[in-house]
Structures are given as C-alpha cells and as structure tokens.
Amino acid sequence: MQFNKVTDKIVAELISILGQANVIVEAEKMEMYAKDEVSDRLWEKMPEVVVKPENTQQVSEIVKLANRELIPITPRGAGSGLAAGAVPLQGGMVLSLEKMNKILDVDTENLFMVCEPGVTTGEVQKTAKEQGLLYAGDPCSADSSFIAGNVATNAGGNKAVKYGVTSRHIYGLEIVMPDGEIVTFGGKNVKDVTGYDIVHLMVGSEGTLGIVTKVWLKLMPLPKYVADLLIPFADMQTAIKVVPKIMTAGIIPTCLEFMDSLSIKSAEMYLNKKLPYGDAGAYVICEVDGTSETQVQDDYETIGKLAMENGALEVFVADNMSTQERIWKARKCYAEAIRMISPVYCMEDIVVPVSNIPKAIEAIERISAKYECKIPSAGHAGDGNIHCTILRENRDDHEWHELKDAVLEELYEEVYALGGNLSGEHGIGAKRAKAMDKHLTDAQRKVLVTIKKALDPNGIMNPGKVLI
Ligand SMILES: Cc1cc2nc3c(=O)[nH]c(=O)nc-3n(C[C@H](O)[C@H](O)[C@H](O)COP(=O)(O)OP(=O)(O)OC[C@H]3O[C@@H](n4cnc5c(N)ncnc54)[C@H](O)[C@@H]3O)c2cc1C
C-alpha cells in the first residue's frame, strides 16, 4: 500500500478541525506515542502528527481527510498494549482517544453503562461498584488501559474464567468506519440477531476496521462474597496439573492463576516484601465469588481439599479486602517485576486447551533449557492462557534477535501442535502478524483479507497490524 506524507497543508486542515492544542507535531511531545508496552526498540516509530479529537464528529472528519489523502491512521487508547498495535509503524497519524473520556450513562434498571472510548477500565469498574454493580472485564492493566482499547484487543484478564473476555460484556458500539461514516450497531438490548453481528466483528479488530467512539457495556449484580486462595507448590508441574482438576470439579472459579518460581521471586524483589512460601516452585491463585456465604465457603473448601490431595504445600484463604489485595498485587505486578530482572524482554501470550497446560509448561521449560535463556511464566491458568517471557539479560542486539526468533518459532510450533493459538488476549498487532500469517490456512486468510478490503479499501486503518 502506497501512503502519502503528512504535509503542512494537512496539518493546517487538522488544526481547523481540532484546534491548535489538539494537533501535536513537536518531536518531544510525540515521543510517548511512538511505542506501547512492548519493551523492544524494534517496535518503536515516531508519528508524523498526533491528533486528539474531543468528539465523534471530529474523529469522522479526521478519518475522511486521511482517507482522501491516503494517510495511515493508528488509533490509540492508553498505549498499554503488548503487541505494538498502537505504534504508527508505517508513519502517518496517531489518533489518540485520551480526550474522549466521559462516562455518559449508568442505567441501573437495564444494567448497562455507556462510555466514551478513553475511560480507563478501572474507572468503569469503580463506577459500577459504587452502584452495587460489577463490570466483569478485568485485565491486569485495568488502572491504565482504556475501555475501547479493551474492546479493540478483546482483552481477557483475571475474571475471564467465570465471566468471559471483553466481548462477553459488550452489547453495542459506535464506530467511525474507514471512510469516515459514523455507524452504531447494537445498544441496550440483551438479545439481538438483527443482521450480521458486527459488534463482535469489531471487538478484537485492533483498530484495523474502524475507530470505536462509544461503548455499551454490560453490568451485573456485584457478588456479595469473595474469597481468594493462595496455594504454594514445591514445583511447577505439580501445581499446573491441579488446574484441569479444579476446572472439572463442578465449580466455576472466578479466577484461576499461576506464577512460577522466578515470577514469585521477581514479585518479592519488585514489592520489596517477603511472600508466603516465597521459595515455592509455583503458586496457584484462585478466587471464588457468589451471593451466598455458605456456597463460597463450600467452593473454596472443595478447591483447597483438591489442592492438598494433589501436592499443595499449604492453602492460605483470604476472605478480607486487605489480604486479598496483597495476593493480587503479587500476581498483577508480573510485567513490572520481570522488568527488574531484564529491562528488555519479549512477553508472549500463548493459549492452549486447559488439559494441555502441563504439556505447554513442559515445552517452555524444554525450550528454556535448550537455548539457555530464562523464560518466567505466569498467567490465567483457568483459561489455558500462559504469559511466558523471554528475557534478554546481557545479550547484545544480534544475540538477542537470534535468540528471540528461534525461541518464538519453536514455541509457536509446540503451541499449535497442542491445539492452541499464539495469542489468548494481547492480540496480534504488528509483533505477531508474520507468525499468525504462517499459521493461517489459505481459506482463513482469504476471509480475513476480504473483510479488511471491503471495509477499508485504501488500507489506511492501522496498516501492518493483524494482517501483513
Ligand atoms: C502490566 C500489564 C498488564 C496487562 N494485563 C493484561 C491482561 O490481564 N489481559 C489483557 O487482555 N491484556 C493485558 N495487558 C495488555 C493491554 O493492557 C491490553 O491489550 C489493553 O486492552 C490495551 O488497551 P489500551 O487502551 O492501552 O490500548 P492501546 O495499547 O492503546 O491499543 C491497543 C490496540 O487497540 C487499538 N485501539 C485502541 N483504542 C481504539 C479505539 N478506540 N478504536 C479502535 N481501535 C483502538 C490500537 O490501534 C491497538 O491496535 C496488560 C498490559 C500491561 C502493561
């Protein structure tokens, strides 16, 4: 695809749409828009201009201009992505949704919230909670990520085991299409089979099919009782083998997470705190919730018993907010804690059927030993989603790129052989586009390319992401 450069004339037109303050061209102010949370410089690129619309009409006018002038647009939420999806790798403009950050409606009768795209996930959760309601989307990045970023990546997170990933919480979207047309699909109806399910085509499309400018979110009653279990094990294989057993015990845990020994040790370093059984080979962390105290107690006792029968060293139960927060801080700081051991790393997001998690962990350990590199793992065990992170440590650029490419190639082959996929929740972005393409069948690729070409014939919407 041949794109044009952003000229002074185009900048002047953008200023006439948005005002001077919302059009950024100064290098030092654009630097933060040149990357996301991928730590490798390979995935950084300065935009030619950053625009910050304040309403949908302005988004539409910007997109019409970009489509006419063949300027690539990279939509951007909070930039917490882990796939280089919000990085303008083919130049052009970054369209930041940070100024469209209002909650427009909390409908406590129909159990809906309507938001602009730039509201943080944490703000959505907090606002729902203040009304005695639950917004069940819960990525570990909730404090920083934007709700439309979650929509665009179909974010998962801790509570996905019981409540599902973001797509399960979205009932309607307003979208600015690649030709600048504003269109709404879905809304406050819980059921809707009126035509194609465009809402769920847009969810997870990573800014390649349009820009999300309004979101209708599902709310639920807030569970009254919550308990968390921290379960240390002597080694990783014993720990991970208990996961399929818990998942088939007739209980649906809200969260079922794991951390390996290096992840536990780095969390201790990052938090500057001793954790219980800090020298354990692995933790399993489990949450159960419900409206009845007895039910919650029955559930965690069943899980605790199962864990002890299958090699747990101990079962710690946290049924109050402060101990629960301590447990979750250790799990949620995984990315920041890993950075303390190696500032450059490659965080992966593989997913396999739950019954194959022990085999996937075995494969990671085998690859780690073969290439003599550390690959700490943690993640959402209950839905088969493993965050394994290749650490650069002291390697030079050449050694690092060789190592990373070799490890990824072998890892993805193992994952597909186990019936898995290369991303469970972080998405494809630019970082995994080539690898995904390698594993697509011709028929799958044809469907994806046909959709992209039909909706975005000029290819201006986040080029180079998802599809190569
Ligand atoms: C510490 C940490 C923990 C994390 N934990 C999780 C986790 O538990 N689960 C999980 O799924 N992810 C997790 N992530 C990854 C990341 O937070 C999610 O992918 C998140 O959904 C990205 O939201 P964002 O607003 O930061 O989007 P960005 O990073 O800004 O963008 C991500 C993608 O969405 C597109 N996009 C953004 N906004 C829009 C819009 N309005 N319209 C169209 N396209 C848009 C961008 O073009 C890009 O392709 C974590 C990241 C970090 C750093």
UniProtKB/TrEMBL annotation:
Cofactor: FAD
Residue ranges of every copy of the FAD-binding PCMH-type domain listed in the record: 42-222
PROSITE patterns registered for this protein in UniProt: FAD_PCMH
Claim: Ligase is one of the keywords in the record: no
Pfam families xrefs: FAD-oxidase_C, FAD_binding_4
Entry keyword set: FAD, Flavoprotein, Oxidoreductase
Protein name from the UniProt record: FAD-binding protein
